[in-house]
């Protein structure tokens, strides 16, 4: 297969740099277009102002790619098959629409279109079937291209473990979660160091709403009017920021409405859970999407965030809950699984199922 | 009033140093006896091995006090009216018993006797009346002295806010709490730095049990067989360690079983709550035991742990909870309110009510 | 004495907040004018956008003071006797000039006029006599008021220890220093947390030049053309940023050109050193400006930055140096002694010597 | 070539775990013997008490290897060709001697024999020729085996850059260095978190002596009485501990005694420097041992410690020094290049030159 040519919108920002870093040697995808708020002769030059934040150097082939204004859709059209959007929510609103209208599929990290019922919000292990809404999206909106999005990074750690139990017919009706989120979730410069030296901050703007609401859509079903939210579950989230570079941790309490699995059953369900990305053997898919650790003191960001290249969720401390049924702690890498890595997995699913293809020539 | 003479058991440890530091200029209490695992000519010398950890220097008068083996009860008897115990749980078991038997009242931080139903576990704003069990304790156990204890530091942030609502007849039946606890809670050397640089640890040995069980006794009532636990409430706790020096934060979700107060009612109840320490104007009592902050991003350890000299609890972010009734975030200073400061407040209550008095001569 | 009325330019920034916090109960000075980039009805409102960062609440009397645009010199003229400037270097250039021209003395933290030879750069324990240049400044520049400045925060830890030795005729000719500087030195938002979690940054823009050059002026003498720099010393500085909230540490190597004092002599010189602020008993003057600690592992930010309310310098680890003569480690509180506290001490000196006085009515 | 069988003494400690982790897929070496303070059936069991600290899981093949008491030399003799010693200095004294006497070569991290003039202290890029002293060591001491050691981790960042210039005949006579060392240098539990949250500690026991003295031996020459120290250089070191997990940084000032290279010459010498490990293409040798970065704000632990798998030194900020000739900042990974990785490179050199060989069978 010839590699697809991809663009990155918002290439110089933190998420954009993660995309470029992770696409370094991708077997299916090749970066051919980079866009930011202004033109630059080379990406190296464009990124020099804020700096390149990754421990690995800029990938050789990306160094000299020209950077275009993100609004230059014609340039994008001539240079790439689809784009990853690492834009902020505000510019994403107009630009992602423009790209979709002009026939360039958009695989987005931004929150701008998460609540459009014709836009699938994907965690491929959970709701790969939601991509079936794409033809309806194109029809209803009159897009030549389309938009798919990924959910907020805060819920990546608990959604797959919850779903794994639900698809085995253990119906979860109540979830209380407190997250301990890493600094990188806010990008760079992001959270001031004075907020996180000897301190935690119990507030991340809009994060609790996203953490509570987005799961309802992710668990929804595709219908005539797009995706219909799941209504069998209520979630309460408290989101805090802690002095950790990468890796969002969640303390989770859950209640079952029908029957209650044993502790051992749950662990087996988690460890054996596989989704479509595993079946398809997508290049970025973790072999085992949920890893349960038996140690008392796991998961920990330092030890577990990089599990399976940062794409697996690590769960631990499953205990009986005196108020609900069970409680556990879950962790996922927020800039990999929760951002660029998750976006790339979405794209791989779309390639595999034929939604993304060689558009040029 | 002549000042009472007090001893500190475990004087060189982290909690012991906090006692010595906080008793610096106490209007009612004077340190006259210090005990550790071995004799030293002066406290300065005794503490030089591990170091004195407080930012303020060793109080002048404590510097040259001799340090005795904690097992030397006769020495204690001749030198002080009562003792604060800052011992580890294991040595506390025998030594606190010995002191009580020998007629030296023990005001303890240790967990050894927290579950003895004749030993009051005090948060003076909540259950000052539990000291009425002391005469029964002396009778049943045959002590000349007695033991009172304080609860674990992890629950100080949420217990007073819960109690304030309950004593206004808003019955809370379910509590789900996740704590983000400071390093100093484990003393020194305590938590290794490699565990808390760029990391959090979702595990503190025995802490979740204490956080769930101790409230039942604190809310209990004094009966024939000592304190009977409150049974109208169930609590689920997840305890984590975060890279913060001082200040335990708790994310709390609560449900009411009878009627549900409005958000404004709750805030008014908290801000206007006063207990016996405030009525008595005890020297260490915070003026306002619960301080509600309206800012979105409070409480924070750095900004709020020192509220009212570290003796007040700061609460914020009271929001409707999609699963229970309300959720909020609470914070208290773990080595002041949650340890030495709390112990001193207990002693002040006992002095005021006549349980501690000039025993010498 | 009637209190002087003071203004703060840049009141909502980090340094400005420190001024307002430290002036809380000042015996000589009362805040009567606050200025920022735009008008607000009250300081409380003006500061609400970025937040008030101090652990103590906004001082009662400052809460409701109106905030004016810093360029409104007429307003300042009618409301205060002199101003503290906590402006950034760029706006300071025009505004401080304007205030001085209009007759309002400026006690500044900014670097804008540090290299004007008619502007004294004060550390009152070292060069209080430099204020004698003020009449010449007014004459040469045609100012009705005047400007005095303080040096950069990075050198506060080592300058007084060096000077204390030099004024005892031990001539230091070479200094090699590496600083480990706190995050608060860059204000808020300042250094991104991703730069300081599990990391240090060996770079602070312009800081090495300031650390090397400013001492030459501080040690200079007042002459016909203003202050003439001292030329008997060369300094080499490397400045790094470390994950510490407050407290700049310096590792210092020094060489003597004439005679070499003994270790004991040096310590005695430091501990007994007193300057004019001590003689004058200025309200913010530390009792002992240089505190030597004998412990192996001092000074440490957490333990020593607050020495004498953050106004003293703490020195330790004085050892023979295999390359130069001696090496030691010094520490001072960068936002107190190194910024607002240092500025207030400068003002106190000027009040005492009659340069600042009741200008209104 | 058949792989050599290696043992690790002190296998459960922090350095030991690093050895086991790094030897995971080594092309020349296979772990066949593990030793600790007591026997265990499997390494997994032996390590479970303190925990396995590496982000990667225990290597499959090491998991089930039995662990023997380190004093069981007979067992070692029957199971491995040589051993890596990751012992603490005290036990190393007796045990390394015993192994050497019994014919088992010891490649050590410990400081016990660093000052024996017949024991080479190796940085293979600098003094690979020192291994020529091994036959004399065996002869003089009567060992059947031998001991080689590596120097302290604190000097790995600056020694190779200094040597690279010296071997080009730019004679350095004075070095003033301040190190900012990572927490992992003290192992686990190591430095208490209360020492490194919002703090730095300007003290590491014995570290300054090692940082100053060991370079003299490393730069020495092999003579009749073993290695004779280099005497043309004097070094002054100040060693501090900072809140960083891995990566020791050094701020270095140097003076040349003969001629002074230009800034550009120095950078070229560093970037083009190669040693014997590079010529031999040893498996763990970094391709480019010294990497110079032109960015203003490098090296940084987070960005540079893993350069070339943690085996390269990264240097930056080369500037003229107002006191000496130049100053720069250097960084190396202390647990890889500075400990286990450095030990493995030493072993590879010894294998290549025939000092380590298949001893069993």
Defining traits:
homotetramer; 361 residues; alpha/beta; Rossmann fold; Dihydrodipicolinate Reductase, domain 2; six-stranded parallel β-sheet; six-stranded mixed β-sheet; 22% strand
Explain what you see.
- The structure is a homotetramer of 361-residue chains.
- Chain A is built from 14 helices and 14 strands.
- The first copy, chain A, folds into two domains: 4-152 and 340-352, 3-Layer(aba) Sandwich (Rossmann fold); 153-333, 2-Layer Sandwich (Dihydrodipicolinate Reductase, domain 2).
- Helix content of chain A is 31%, strand content 22%.
- In chain A, α1 crosses α14.
- In chain A, the strands form three sheets. Chain A has a six-stranded parallel beta sheet, sandwiched between helices.
- In chain A, a hairpin with a 5-residue loop joins β13 (313-320) and β14 (326-332).
- Chain A is α/β, with parallel strands linked by helices and 361 residues long.
- The interface between A and B is large, with 43 and 42 residues.
Task: Give the strand tally of chain A.
Answer: 14
The CATH class name of the largest domain in chain A reads Alpha Beta
User: Biggest protein-protein interface?
Assistant: A-B, 43 and 42 residues
| CATH homology superfamily of the largest domain in chain A | Dihydrodipicolinate Reductase, domain 2
What is the domain tally of chain A?
2
Oligomer classification: homotetramer
The overall average pLDDT of chain A, rounded, is: 97
Secondary-structure element pattern of chain A, one letter each: EHEHHEHEHEHHEHEHHEEEEHHEHEEH
- Overall morphology of chain A: globular
Largest sheet of chain A: 6 strands, parallel
Rg of chain A computed from alpha carbons, rounded to a whole number of angstroms? 20 Å
Level of helix content of chain A?
A: 25-40%
């Amino acid at each position: 297969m010839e590699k697809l040519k991809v663009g990155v919108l918002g290439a110089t920002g933190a998420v954009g740099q993660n995309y470029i870093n992770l696409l370094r040697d991708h077997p299916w995808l090749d970066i051919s277009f980079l866009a930011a708020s202004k033109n630059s002769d080379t990406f190296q030059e464009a990124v020099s102002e804020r700096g390149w934040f990754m421990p690995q150097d800029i990938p050789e082939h990306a160094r000299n790619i020209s950077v275009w204004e993100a609004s230059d859709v014609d340039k994008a059209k001539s240079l790439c098959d689809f784009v990853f959007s690492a834009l902020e929510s505000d510019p994403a609103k107009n630009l992602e629409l423009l790209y979709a209208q002009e026939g360039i599929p958009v695989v987005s990290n931004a929150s701008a279109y998460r609540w459009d019922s014709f836009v699938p919000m994907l965690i491929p292990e959970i709701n790969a079937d939601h991509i079936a809404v794409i033809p309806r999206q194109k029809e209803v909106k009159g897009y030549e291209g389309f938009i798919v999005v990924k959910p907020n990074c805060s819920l990546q750690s608990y959604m797959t473990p919850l779903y794994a139990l639900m698809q085995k017919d253990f119906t979860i009706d109540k979830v209380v979660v407190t997250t301990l989120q890493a600094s990188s979730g806010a990008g760079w410069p992001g959270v001031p160091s004075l907020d996180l030296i000897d301190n935690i901050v119990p507030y991340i703007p809009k994060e609790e709403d996203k953490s509570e609401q987005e799961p309802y859509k992710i668990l929804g079903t595709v219908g005539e009017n797009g995706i219909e939210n799941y209504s069998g579950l209520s979630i309460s989230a408290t989101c805090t920021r802690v002095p950790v570079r990468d890796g969002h941790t969640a303390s989770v309490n859950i209640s079952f409405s029908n029957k209650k699995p044993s502790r051992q059953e749950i662990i087996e369900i988690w460890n054996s859970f596989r989704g479509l990305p595993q079946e398809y053997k997508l290049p970025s898919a973790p072999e085992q999407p949920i890893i349960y650790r038996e140690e008392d003191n796991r998961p920990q960001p330092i030890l577990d965030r990089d599990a399976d290249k940062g794409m697996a969720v690590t769960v631990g401390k499953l205990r009986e809950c005196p108020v609900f049924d069970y409680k556990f702690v879950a962790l996922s890498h927020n800039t990999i699984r929760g951002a660029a890595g998750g976006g790339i997995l979405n794209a791989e699913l779309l390639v595999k199922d034929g939604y993304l293809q060689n558009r040029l020539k």
